[in-house]
From TrEMBL:
Belongs to the CobD/CbiB family. The lineage of its organism: Bacteria, Pseudomonadati, Pseudomonadota, Gammaproteobacteria, Pseudomonadales. The chain crosses the membrane at residues 55-76, 83-103, 156-178, 296-312. One of its GO terms (biological process) is cobalamin biosynthetic process. Pfam families: CobD_Cbib. This is Cobalamin biosynthesis protein CobD. It is a multi-pass membrane protein. Pathway: Cofactor biosynthesis; adenosylcobalamin biosynthesis. GO terms for cellular component: plasma membrane. GO terms for molecular function: ABC-type vitamin B12 transporter activity; ligase activity; threonine-phosphate decarboxylase activity. PANTHER family: COBALAMIN BIOSYNTHESIS PROTEIN CBIB. Its main location: membrane.
Length: 313
């Protein structure tokens, strides 16, 4: 009972700290982890034409990269007590959340797009999506940015809160590192089809419940009926089992059309249409940001009420 109250307090403190400070401009742990991931992949991804061996090597890579940090967090939670433990948990959760960073990246796209500066908007959106941004028109830029806000809100923000409540700092670290591996290796091409499969499947497993809680949150805070309809009908058509519910519900909640054809390095990818309503604009990007922010407030308020009920009981 007491541990739940402390966990809720840490969630609130981490969100507040992120809002005040944001991501470190230098020496961010995930940036260093990304460099390490690249080095390990260069060493171990040596059998792209042999699916079985490639899968084995990819699984070994996941364990080597993720388990030391998870074990370190388990050790920290075992030996630290009181305010030192709360401080470490708050810092770890704050670094994983990146809510302020999400808002900054989204607005960096929305603001030039709103004033008609398409080249600047294309340049900014290229920093958060893997599409060929130079080939996107205004609607395409808004589409890409809004999708990124909705999906990354689920992956970074809501999933981090969920896994902290379930498994503390070790759970947050496990999820965030696996999610980073999936972002770097989860491609269905010759290089990563086998090697990245373990990271991709583990990420799907870890995000299954948080994604659906996020989709429900989006639905409740927007056009609920349309969001639930889009979730039920359109999410199964999406390639990702977790991004589908999140983006379908988010698009329905906002009353916009997302998905559709998008240019990538390998060519134009024809994706299912998500949502219903108007085409996306700069206002859609802002609305998707607000949907994530309101969702976080909703979660914290709900957790606060539960904490008071627990304390009263």
């Amino acid at each position: 009972m007491e541990s739940f109250l402390v966990s809720v307090a840490v969630c609130c403190a981490a969100v507040l700290l992120d809002a005040l400070v944001g991501e470190p401009r230098r020496w961010h742990p995930l940036v260093g982890f990304g460099r390490l991931v690249t080095s390990v992949e260069c060493c171990l991804n040596r059998a792209p034409g042999r699916p079985g061996l490639s899968l084995l090597l990819g699984t070994v890579a996941v364990v080597v990269l993720v388990m030391p940090a998870v074990l370190l967090m388990l050790f920290a939670e075992a030996v630290l007590t009181g305010w030192w433990l709360v401080l470490i948990q708050t810092l770890v959760l704050c670094l994983a959340l990146s809510l302020r960073g999400l808002v900054e990246h989204g607005r960096a796209v929305a603001q030039p797009l709103a004033r008609g500066d398409l080249p600047a908007a294309q340049e900014q959106v290229s920093r958060i999506v893997s599409r060929r941004a130079s080939e996107l028109d205004e609607a395409g830029v808004a589409n890409a940015a809004a999708e990124s806000m909705l999906e990354n809100g689920a992956d970074a923000v809501f999933a981090s809160l969920f896994w902290f409540l379930v498994a503390g700092a070790p759970g947050v670290v496990l999820h965030r590192l696996v999610n980073t591996l999936d972002a770097m290796w989860g491609y269905r091409n010759d290089r990563f089809e086998g090697f990245g499969k373990a990271a991709a499947r583990l990420d799907d497993l870890l995000n299954w419940i948080p994604a659906r809680l996020t989709a429900l949150t989006y639905a409740l805070l927007g056009d609920t009926r349309l969001a639930l309809q889009c979730w039920r009908r359109q999410a199964p058509t999406w390639e990702s089992p977790n991004a589908g519910p999140v983006m379908a519900a988010g698009a329905g909640a906002l009353g916009v059309v997302l998905g559709g054809a998008a240019p990538y390095g390998s060519g134009v990818k024809h994706r299912p249409v998500l949502g219903s309503g108007v085409m996306p604009t700069a206002a859609t990007v802002e609305a998707s940001i607000e949907l994530v922010r309101k969702g976080v407030i909703c979660w914290l308020v709900t957790l606060g009420i539960l904490a008071m009920v627990v304390a009263w009981l």
